[in-house]
Design brief:
Blueprint (H helix, E strand, L loop, with lengths): L1 H8 L12 E3 L15 H5 L14 E6 L5 H12 L2 E3 L6 H5 L16 H6 L7 H27 L3 E4 L6 H9 L5 H14 L8 E6 L2 H10 L10 H19 L4 E6 L6 H10 L12 H11 L2 H6 L14 H12 L19 E3 L1
Parallel strand pairs: 2-4, 2-5, 3-4, 5-6
Antiparallel strand pairs: 1-7
Length: 355
């Protein structure tokens, strides 16, 4: 459902969520929407990626439990290494990319709630799995943004968590009885056909914060929905990281691990990174041709989203035709969603309108 809902609000072949699908009428339009995109002709005319790649033209991912200090480390390290910092996406990541003035209703953002998950993780309406599947899509879209930025500018990117580590939360949810086995199978099927299209990050930095310490931090925030997160759930996340994710990702990426005290020493971490050989992983096998194909993929956000859409009946994420239709017209009725950018309704200009 995540991709189906996404398709309602982001037109096909959207470049950085800005290109719109247009239908031309007989009237003239004075403000046509145009978006310059990288494409086949750019490559034919000599545009190449490898000349702009430098020493720090890499993707780093900071991983760890909830409230383990990932964001602070990612921000400081990005400043130290001259890389772009991308904070962890939330359920409104698409709203931010489309520059919405205010976040849209959850009905247009996966129909899920993080607060509800923490307050009632076993909710009978399937919120937990809708949240998990939607957040995987958000992280996949953000990772595609990171790859696009790297290949386009040559500047490295540091992400706070990535789609590659999303399975630790799925595993923890299942172990705690928050989601069904059918949801796990559905998620794994989606991930098998989507994450394989992307290259793993060059480096994963794991912040090792004990579950008991994480729980204390969450209670100290004062946010009501964070007060009752179970210790067993936090321990399940920690176990999944150490026993499942880190051993697997280490086959393709460099891995560094630090406790919550060690992550305060940014200079030491930067020095450790300098000593890494970065002699494994899919990035070593790429050339200008494969970089070209990856750039074509990651700039098309609808194509990225389509990877997460598998026609399987899962009650938690499946919607009917009438509900889909209602969502579409409800979205188009929102202010600014009926016509393309540049349309002047007051002037009676009806030259271009959204499909």
């Amino acid at each position: 459902m995540a991709s189906r809902i996404f398709r309602l609000f982001v037109p096909s072949s959207a470049a950085a969520f800005k290109t719109v699908s247009l239908s031309q009428t007989a009237a003239f339009h004075t403000c046509p929407v145009r978006s310059l995109r990288y494409g086949w002709w750019a490559y034919v005319l000599g545009e190449r990626t490898t000349p702009r790649l430098k020493e720090n033209s890499k993707i780093f991912c900071i991983d760890g439990n909830i409230a383990s200090g990932k964001g602070a480390l990612a921000q400081k390290l990005a400043n130290r290494l001259g890389m772009l910092y991308m904070p962890e996406p939330d359920v409104h990541y698409v709203d931010k990319m489309t520059k919405e003035k205010v976040p849209l209703d959850s009905a247009y953002n996966g129909n899920c709630s993080l607060e509800k998950f923490y307050l009632d993780p076993k909710a009978s309406d399937g919120n937990s799995y809708r949240l998990q599947s939607w957040m995987y899509l958000m992280r996949l879209l953000q990772y595609s943004d990171a790859v696009e930025h790297l290949l386009t500018t040559g500047q490295g990117v540091i992400l706070e968590r990535s789609p590659f580590s999303d399975m630790v939360f799925l595993e923890a949810m299942f172990n705690q009885g928050y989601i069904r086995k059918q949801c796990v199978d559905h998620y794994n099927e989606i991930k098998d056909i989507s994450i394989c299209e992307f290259w793993a990050p060059h480096l994963v930095i794991y912040v090792d914060s004990p579950a008991e310490e994480v729980q204390k931090k969450l209670k100290a925030t004062g946010k009501p929905y964070l007060q009752n997160i179970s210790l067993s759930y936090l321990k399940s996340i920690e176990t999944a990281y150490k026993k499942t994710f880190l051993p697997k990702i280490s086959e393709e990426a460099e891995v560094l691990a630090y406790d919550t005290t060690q992550v305060q020493d940014i200079e030491k971490i930067a020095e450790d990174i300098e000593y890494l050989k970065f002699d494994k992983g899919p990035w070593l096998e790429q050339d200008d041709v494969t970089f070209h194909h990856m750039r074509i993929l990651v700039e098309d956000k609808q194509q990225v989203a389509n990877m997460t859409c598998i026609p399987r009946y899962i009650p938690e994420v499946t919607i009917g035709a009438h509900e889909f239709d209602n969502s579409y017209y409800s979205f188009r009725s929102l202010p600014g969603k009926q016509y393309a950018e540049g349309y002047n309704e007051d002037a009676g200009d009806k030259g271009i309108w959204l499909k």
